[in-house]
Structure formats: C-alpha cells, structure tokens
C-alpha cells in the first residue's frame, strides 16, 4: 500500500442529539458544563431550517437560541442548540417560557443580518429593532407576542415569536473540532447531561464532521463516494442507523455517476469541486457532501450522519474510528486501487479490538 497522504489523528467534531427532561432546558446543561470547567455561557442565535408547507417556499429559515460554553481561557467547550427534527415526547401545546424565542424569515441572508446586528439576550419586543433601523422602518408588535419587521415597501424581512411546545428541551451538543480522540472530554460532557436527566430521544442521531482537506483530490473523493454509494445500505445496518431518524438518504445517483466519470477523475480539484456543486448535493443525506463541494470556510467538512443516538462516549468514538478508517482507505493510493477491493476485514486500518467488534457486528448483519 502506498504511503498515506494524511496521518492520524484526523481532525473531527461531534454533534450529539439529546433531550432534556421536562422542567429542564439546554441552557441548564450549558450552565452545568460552564460551572465544571470554570467558564462562562454566552447566548447566541443559531441557524436552523425546516420544511415549509407554503407553496413556492421549500423551507422556513430560523434562528434559535443556543448557548456557547467557553472555558476559563475562552476556548469553546461545547455549543448547545435546538434541533428541529427532535419532536417525540414534546408537548406541542405547552406555553413558551419567558425569554425563549425563534426568529423566522424566508431568506437566510436576512437572518445573517439579524445575527450580525441583534442581541440574542434582548427581549422579544426589542430584538429586531436594529434590523428595522437598517431598513428605515420600525418593528411592528402584533398579537401573541409576535414582532415583525418589513421594509418600506411592506415586504417581510423577519419576525420573532415566542417559542412554544417545549422547544427549550431538545439539545444538540456540538463539540469543537479536535485532533485527539479525547474520551475523557466527551465523557464529561455526557456525564453532565446524564446528571441532569437528559436522555437519547427517539429520533436521535450522532453526526461526525471530518476535516475535508485530505479529501480534496478527485481520485480520493471518487473512491470514497463510489464506495459509500455501493455499500451505504450495508454500513447503515452495520452501525445500527436509527430508523426513526429523519433527513437521511443514500448518496444521489447523479453524484455517484459524476465521481466515476473520466472527466471528474482527470479534473483539477477546483474543477472537480465545481462539477460536484452542479449536482446540487444536499446536507440531508447519509453522507453530507455539501460543505466540501462549496468549500465552506467555517465548516469545510465531510459529515457522516448515519450513526445512532448515544450517550456513551466509547461507542461514539468507536464509530468515529470506523469512519476514519474508511476515509483513510479512500485517500491511500486512490489512483491505483481497484474499485471492488473494499473489505472490512482486510482493507481498513482498525485496532484489533475494533476489528473484532465490527467483525462481530458484520456477522450479525
């Protein structure tokens, strides 16, 4: 096997979906983590999207309250946000708690302005005042505690509404990118959640983001995507993908056909990336290629979304090592390797313990 172009450890970050018990919120968990690390909590506005039932409007863009936990040195420990896919067990009729809100718009660019100019700690009546000033209007207050902003032509800009339905309870823990597999750090976060009675919700998943830089090579990405397209169903069964998890799906056939093409394989990376963008990859798939296709500066990652929800750090890190071994296999000698030589037992660089674990799972699958 050719020498690796990327040495372990691979930089990665985790997204772990949990649910607070009734009477608790993700803010409570943020405060507990901050107390443990001697840090502070900063309230932030975090973007989310959800499907829309309005004709001609495929999604509603949202900003929800998140809580950024920093340690005594100012380094991020975790970001705790809502996840709109987590719904089971929530009371949709529950009243909004004081101060909890969400901001909506039909244009994510307008919400980016809100993020830049508005204070997430402001009240519902005042939070959009700076945006109204940008458009030369005033915030309008309506029934139900809703405040909206329009431009001078009366076109909607954004609106803020109370957050009902116990939406303070869903909690996605987003860890900062890390180089080392620090089971102690991940275990400590999950122990804090466990101590407050958090649990794994019915629809939960664990998403793992891997640094995309080592994959920015047409041959390596082709080998990876081709393998995941052909073996995706097997990998889902192997890791135990949660059947209740939404916003998943196989890699699109159009993407698989592209990466197998001679044009893609012979292209320079920037050309290959442009080809990938033209296939319109979606975030909501088993393997998210959107970030690498668009070379997003703040999230230049390859995201694996097939792992089941968990509060066990050892299990989560074992899954990460499996995916990392597949990534390593893809970038090593990508140009000369045969497409059909992928084999869990023989091809992947796994520790003896991990190899035994996954071989047992494979036998059962």
Describe this structure in words.
The chain is α+β, with helices and mostly antiparallel strands and 365 residues long. 35% of the residues lie in helices and 21% in strands. The protein contains twelve helices and twelve strands. It has helices at residues 26-37, 108-117, 129-134, 183-195, 218-239, 253-260, 262-266, 269-278, 290-294, 313-331, 344-347, 352-364, and strands at 12-19, 40-51, 59-70, 76-81, 101-105, 140-141, 147-150, 156-162, 170-174, 205-211, 287-288, 301-308. Strands 1, 2, 3, 4, 5, 6, 7, 8, 9, 10, 11 and 12 form a twelve-stranded antiparallel β-sheet that branches.
List keywords for this structure.
365 residues, 12 helices, 35% helix, alpha+beta
Q: What kind of assembly state do the chains in view correspond to?
A: single chain
Shape descriptor: globular
Could you give the count of β-strands? 12
Structural class: alpha+beta
- The radius of gyration over CA amounts to 22 Å
Q: What about the largest sheet?
A: 12 strands, antiparallel
Cα-to-Cα separation, first versus last residue: 29 Å
Extract low-pLDDT stretches. Answer: 1-6
Mean pLDDT equals 91
Beta-strand level of the residues, as a percent range? 15-25%
Counting H and I runs of at least 4 residues, what is the number of helices?
12
Summarize the helix and strand pattern as letters. EHEEEEHHEEEEHEHHHHEHEHHH
Q: Percent helix among the residues? A: 25-40%
């Amino acid at each position: 096997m050719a020498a690796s172009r990327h040495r372990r450890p691979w930089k990665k970050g985790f997204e772990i979906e949990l649910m607070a018990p009734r009477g608790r919120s993700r803010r409570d968990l943020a405060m507990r983590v901050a107390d443990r690390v001697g840090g502070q909590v900063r309230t932030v506005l975090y973007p989310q999207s959800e499907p829309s039932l309005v004709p001609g409007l495929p999604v509603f863009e949202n900003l929800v309250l998140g809580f950024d936990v920093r340690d005594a040195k100012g380094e991020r420990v975790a970001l705790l946000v809502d996840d709109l896919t987590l719904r089971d067990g929530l009371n949709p009729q529950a009243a909004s708690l004081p101060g909890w809100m969400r901001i909506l718009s039909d244009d994510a660019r307008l919400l980016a302005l809100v993020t830049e100019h508005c204070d997430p700690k402001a009240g519902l009546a005042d939070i959009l005042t700076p945006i109204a000033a940008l458009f030369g209007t005033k915030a309008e207050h309506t029934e139900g505690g809703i405040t909206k902003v329009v431009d001078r032509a009366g076109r909607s800009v954004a609106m803020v509404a109370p957050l009902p339905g116990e939406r303070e309870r869903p909690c996605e823990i987003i860890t900062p990118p890390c180089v080392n597999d620090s089971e102690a750090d991940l275990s400590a976060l999950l122990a804090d959640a466990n101590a407050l009675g958090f649990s794994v919700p019915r629809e939960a998943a664990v998403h793992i983001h891997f640094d995309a830089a080592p994959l920015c090579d047409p041959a390596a990405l082709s080998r990876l995507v081709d393998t995941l397209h052909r073996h995706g169903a097997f990998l889902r069964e192997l890791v135990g993908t949660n059947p209740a998890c939404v916003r998943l799906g196989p890699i699109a056939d159009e993407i698989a056909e592209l990466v197998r093409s001679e044009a893609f394989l012979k292209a320079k990376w920037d050309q290959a990336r442009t080809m990938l963008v033209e296939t319109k990859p979606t975030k909501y798939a088993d393997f998210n290629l959107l970030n690498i296709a668009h070379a997003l500066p703040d999230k230049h990652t390859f995201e694996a979304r097939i792992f089941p929800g968990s509060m066990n750090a050892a299990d989560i890190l074992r899954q990460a090592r499996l995916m990392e071994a597949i990534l390593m296999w893809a970038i090593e000698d990508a140009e000369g390797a045969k497409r059909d030589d992928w084999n869990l037992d023989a091809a992947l660089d796994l520790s003896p313990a991990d190899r035994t674990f996954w071989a047992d799972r494979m036998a059962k699958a």
